[in-house]
Design a protein that fits this description.
Layout: E1 2-6, E2 9-12, E3 15-18, E4 20-24, E5 27-32, E6 42-45, E7 50-53, E8 55-60, E9 65-66, E10 69-70, H1 75-84, E11 87-96, H2 102-113, E12 120-127, H3 132-145, E13 149-153, H4 164-177, E14 180-184, H5 188-200, H6 207-211, H7 215-231, E15 237-239, H8 245-256, E16 261-265, H9 267-271, H10 274-278, H11 301-311, E17 316-317, H12 350-359, H13 365-379, E18 397-407, E19 426-436, E20 439-443, E21 446-447
Helix pairs in contact: 3-4, 4-7, 7-8
The structure holds dihydropyrimidine-2,4(1H,3H)-dione (DUC) and zinc ion (2 copies).
One zinc ion (ZN) binds near residues 61, 320 and 322.
Length: about 475
């Protein structure tokens, strides 16, 4: 089937231009100057809309077992919500825990996703136990499974934590096989001390989750990861969910020295604060307990992160989508903030939330598209199949209406959460129509695709590797 997306403004890496996009089957066949396309195909009228590549969320945790429970979005509910919000590919984290075989962890994630996803998906692999076997497995995943990025944790001792020696070994392996090391950069052992001391003082409210994870412990871990990567012959390093000015400073310094260091941030760190959300009265703040934590609005974190996005010291915006309901899940931490499952869900809203950067003149249109689609594709080896409107690429396309309005609420969202971290937000812009591999899967906020249509995307090495 051929479709012509006509009359819109295509947003490419070099900026917006007028063009008509011809879709043939699952891919983009051609882009014509206005009025030059052949007659015949079905027309989608894109007049007044931006035509952008389907967004890629490079950091999600669907149905992840964590914190004594499991993330509340399944691959079914989470990828459906993502689709409605303009995201056409996710990269989720398969997990190997200490003592488990890496390939068994991967097989478990393939089993969870089989016939469940509404959009295409890839996997990163969490290595929870670095040893001879898991290092060997990293080679096999890169060579044969399309998995070219591995997440390690400097936080969560006793759960996913790796010590510095383990981190160095995994980085050396990644330097050899070309993979990217993704780092959760927070000093876990030091945080555990602060958490214990806070609880002993009777400080049990959700806000203490943030106060026991000061930005210095993110900055220190970020710096340590950067130097360990240097020792591993400049292994490619990607800092996940960067939240704080001092951590950004470490990344900026490394990049100024030409180092192979990248970072992402998430919408929650660009907009929300420790005082306004995490510090909400009573147990309300539990809704925003995530790690890294929300930072103080009295400091310059949010402005610094927006600037980092503009200057490319932050290359990507992902969600770290890890939703938990208040009922029975977040509630586990009433009376002890350390028992609140860590995570926020925003997979449905990232495209709209980042568009506010354009509205508020913090980002250009091209930079908006880069941070939510093109750079994640290039960073994680899916380009040019994904992340760009170009002949030969998958026809993953979003028509975005800059004159529309989006109201976010638990009453209307599609994620499996009993609250919204963005309740009542009314913002400019609206996802109008979403195509995934040439199929219209959402239109006017209504879902039109089907469970199981999403395909696994094996990934190549990062485009940014040097
Ligand atoms: N942080 C979260 O908030 N949730 C899942 C894991 C993580 O690192
Ligand atoms: Zn993390
Ligand atoms: Zn995460």
């Amino acid at each position: 089937m051929t479709i012509l997306i006509k009359g819109g403004t295509v947003v490419g890496p070099s900026g917006p231009y007028s063009g008509d996009v011809l879709v043939d089957g699952e891919t983009i066949a051609a882009i014509f100057a206005p009025g030059q396309a052949p007659e015949g195909p079905e027309i989608i009228d894109a007049t007044g809309k931006y035509v952008i590549p389907g967004a890629i969320d490079a950091h999600t945790h669907m149905q992840m077992p964590f914190g004594g429970t499991e993330a509340s979005d399944t691959f079914d509910t989470g990828t459906r919500a993502a689709a409605i919000g303009g995201t056409t590919t996710i990269i989720d984290f398969a997990i190997q825990r200490y003592g488990e075989v890496v390939q068994d962890g991967l097989a478990a994630w393939h089993a969870k996703t089989a016939d469940q996803c509404h959009i295409d998906y890839g996997f990163h692999m969490i290595i929870g136990g670095v040893d001879d076997d898991s290092l060997k497995a990293m080679d096999q995943l890169v060579a044969s499974e399309g998995i070219t990025s591995f997440k390690l944790f400097m936080a969560y001792p006793g759960v996913f934590y790796s010590d510095d020696g383990q981190i160095l070994r995994a980085m050396q392996k990644a330097r050899e096989n070309g993979a990217m090391i993704m780092m959760h950069a927070e000093n876990g052992p030091a945080i555990d001390v602060l958490v214990k001391q806070a609880l002993e003082r009777g400080e049990t409210d959700p806000v203490f989750h943030g106060l026991t994870r000061p930005q210095e412990l993110e900055a220190e871990a970020t710096s340590r990861a950067i130097w360990l990567a240097a020792v591993a012959a400049d292994c490619p390093l990607y800092i996940v969910h960067l939240s704080a000015s001092k951590a950004l400073e470490q990344v900026r310094n490394a990049r100024d020295l030409g180092r192979n260091v990248f970072a992402e941030t998430c919408p929650q760190y660009l907009y929300l604060t420790l005082e306004d959300q995490l510090g909400a009265p009573g147990f309300e703040g539990a809704k925003w307990v995530c790690s890294t934590p929300l930072r103080s609005g009295k400091e310059s974190h949010r402005a610094d992160l927006w600037q980092g996005l503009r200057t490319n010291d932050l290359s990507v915006v992902s969600t770290d989508h890890c939703p938990f309901c208040m009922k029975d899940q977040k509630e586990m931490g009433i009376g002890d903030f350390s028992k609140i499952p860590n995570g926020i869900g925003s997979v449905e809203h990232r495209v709209d939330l980042l568009y506010q950067g354009v509205v508020e003149k913090k980002l250009s249109l091209a930079r908006w598209v880069e941070t939510i689609a093109t750079t994640p594709a290039r960073m994680f080896g899916m380009y040019p199949k994904k992340g760009i409107i170009a002949p030969g690429s998958d026809a993953d396309i979003v028509l975005y209406d800059p004159n529309g309005r989006t109201r976010i609420s638990v009453e209307t969202h599609h994620m499996n959460m009993d609250y919204s971290a963005w309740e009542g937000w009314e913002i400019d812009g609206k996802v109008d129509t979403v195509l995934s591999r040439g199929e219209v899967i959402a239109s006017g906020g209504e879902y039109k695709g089907r469970k199981g249509r999403g395909k696994y995307v094996p990934r190549s090495l990062s485009d940014y590797l040097v």
